[in-house]
Amino acid sequence: MKDQILQTAAQLFMTHGFKSITMDDIAQDMAISKKTIYSHFNNKEAIVAVVVDDLFESVCHGIDCIGELNHNPIEEIYEIKKLVIKHVGNERDSPWYQLRKYYPHIHESIKKRQFNYMQKCVVENLNRGLEQGLFRENIDVQFVSRIYFVGVTGIKDDQLFPPESFDGETLYSTFLEYHLRGIVTPKGRKILNQIIHSNLE
Fold it and tell me: Would the keyword Protein biosynthesis turn up in this protein's UniProt record (predicted)?
């Protein structure tokens, strides 16, 4: 029953937002009593915390699986982008905005874990790119990995990039191209151009 509650809550949160959905909505959707839900979770915030944690772990697992496919580092970055869009959609949509606004401590906790995980993945990606001659030898891996995190999180800022003017997925793609064009070698640029061209078809 606990897993069913989480699954239902996750679907409702992703569709309608973390603030909009109440315990009554979850109970009604499942055709159970609120008392049943409260027997597993103390409050709605507890459900939100587990749902967000599960989603984070799911995305991390998916990224780990992509890493095992032996794509070249440039292809890998674009495969990860597809995975993230599939799992969390356009992160500038209301569920994530509501999480930031109404559950800031949950959002901050996930952001810290996201940084630690992304730092590890991006450093590995950059080092493989260097070994394969796809990224410039003189890049500062620690700097580039951190500026990448700043960029990926920064494009979600609604004040800097108003949703009515900037589509989330397009922003993500534009940022990836901006990031990669600054560090690729001529060999890497050829692969990057092929990927961008194929994505436009």
Answer: no
d(CA 45, CA 88): 19
What does the pLDDT average to over 75-86?
Answer: 90
- Give me 86's structure tokens: 């599939």
Mean pLDDT, rounded, for 189-199: 94
Identity of the amino acid at 10: A
Q: For residue 169, what pLDDT band results from cuts at 50, 70 and 90? A: confident
Give the C-alpha separation, 44 to 134, whole Å: 47
In angstroms, rounded to a whole number, what is the distance separating the alpha carbons of residues 160 and 169?
16
Phi/psi of residue 178, nearest 5 degrees:
-60, -45
- Mean pLDDT over 158-182 rounds to 90
Give me the DSSP letters along 53-65.
HHHHHHHHHHHHH
Domain segments of the chain as ranges: 45-200
Q: Give, in words, the CATH class of 45-200.
A: mainly alpha
Are the beta carbons of 68 and 132 closer than 8 angstroms? no
Q: Please, are residues 119 and 57 in contact by the beta-carbon 8 Å criterion?
A: no
List all residues 6 or more positions away from 26 whose beta carbon is below 8 Å from its beta carbon.
5, 8, 9, 12, 37, 47
| Whole-structure pTM value | 0.84
Q: Give the CA dihedral 101, 102, 107, 108, nearest 10 degrees.
A: 80
The answer to whether 139 and 187 have CB atoms below 8 angstroms apart is no
